[in-house]
Design a protein that fits this description.
Layout lengths: L1 H25 L15 E6 L2 E2 L5 H8 L2 H4 L2 E6 L1 E2 L1 H9 L5 E5 H9 L6 E6 L6 E6 L14 E4 L4 H13 L7 E4 L5 H6 L5 E5 L3 H8 L3 E5 L10 E6 H6 L1 H20 L1 H11 L5 H15 L13 H13 L22
Parallel strand pairs: 1-3, 8-9, 8-10
Antiparallel strand pairs: 2-4, 5-12, 6-12, 7-10, 7-11
Helix pairs in contact: 2-10, 2-11, 5-6, 8-12, 10-11, 11-12
């Protein structure tokens, strides 16, 4: 009887080992087929541009849909606090990638406020920076901003670019008061009447109206500065130099998430809500639908993420003409064109 028991146990063990061997050999559903086991994927910390709104849902989509893992990455997504803060965090080594407004990056670099970062892809081909207010605030044109109180994070591109926008729009910036705000509570600050306007991207309109229950009024910077890019993906100069292939793979995976989000805004919004429960799905989807018109331009063709040296040079010229750049800079100082997607 004991011999029979040992024989059955040995057979069961052999069967189990054979099944395990078969599973590890060539199953398409294994972690290896998706870019390696959890331990083999490279850990990456990614910052959103500004909080966790619909406009940044594409990063969560790239993670949820497996685009990051297929490329060999284990990505931790954290909320960013605007251009200045994102640059500082990445250069400081606490994050690896994140989007910033390119014009804000030019101002940071050209005025000696930041260095050692490079852009490797465009998220939006046109700037989405704007001043947002509410119906009833008596703000219908840039000139109406004089005598008003505006809020934004200190490192936001909307705030840092405001002197240039004001000069080109015929506004006296000295007559506009700015106060500090936080990315996640900025809209509430406007909705509760603490300020007359806030720095915001144009895609924030649905979210503002959802929170304030009033019609939002936006003054887009692109109305007076038409050559400026919007957000670009950046990394540290160190990572770009030491890991160029890793940068290209990560960029390609993120672009997949961006493209999928624009094609499926409602699903992308639901994925964002799954990871950020406070998300309003309808507002997040509407943000993505509005953003779609900014992601491609006539010179980018069908490819996502392209950057044109000539257009960046024009942006630099605009800032120099407005007297907001202390140093002369070139497009190559802020963009690594060897790593950017090609049109």
């Amino acid at each position: 009887m004991r011999r029979l028991t040992r024989t059955v146990a040995a057979a069961a063990l052999a069967t189990t080992l054979a099944l395990l061997a078969g599973c590890s050999g060539g199953s398409d559903s294994s972690e290896d087929a998706k870019g390696g086991s959890g331990g083999s994927r490279e850990k990456v910390t990614y910052l959103t541009s500004f909080g966790n709104f619909g406009r940044d849902a594409y990063a969560w989509v790239a993670k949820e849909k497996g685009f990051f893992s297929e490329a060999g990455f284990d990505v931790d997504i954290k909320p960013g606090q605007g251009t200045g803060a994102v640059i500082q965090t990445i250069v400081g080594g606490q994050a690896d990638f994140g989007p910033i407004d390119l014009t804000g990056g030019l101002l940071q670099l050209g005025n000696g406020q930041a260095k050692d970062f490079v852009a490797v892809a465009a998220i939006q081909q046109r700037t989405m920076a704007a001043i947002a207010t509410l119906d009833g605030k008596a703000i219908a044109s840039p000139k109406d901003l004089e005598g008003k109180k505006l809020a934004d994070t200190p490192g936001s591109v909307v705030r840092n670019l405001f002197p240039t926008y004001a000069k080109m729009a015929g506004v006296d910036p000295a007559k506009v008061q700015w106060v500090n705000g936080d990315a996640q509570t900025l809209i509430q600050t406007l909705a509760t009447g603490q300020v007359d306007g806030i720095g915001q991207f144009v895609v924030g309109q649905p979210t503002i109206e959802g929170v304030a229950k009033k019609k939002a009024v936006l003054l887009p910077y692109s109305n007076v500065m038409q050559d400026l890019y919007g957000n670009v993906l950046i990394t540290s100069a160190k990572i770009a130099k030491e890991k160029p292939e890793m940068v290209k793979k990560f960029t390609a995976a993120l672009m997949k998430g961006l493209e999928y989000s624009l094609a499926n805004p409602q699903e992308a919004a639901k994925i964002l809500q799954k990871n950020v429960p406070a998300t309003n799905v309808d507002s997040a989807a509407a943000e993505l639908q509005l953003m779609a018109g900014y992601v491609r331009s006539s010179n980018s063709g069908t490819a996502l993420g392209t950057l044109d040296s000539g257009r960046v040079a024009k942006s630099i010229a605009i800032l120099q003409g407005a007297g907001t750049l202390k140093q002369n800079i070139t497009p190559e100082q802020i963009i690594d064109f060897s790593l950017t997607p090609k049109a």
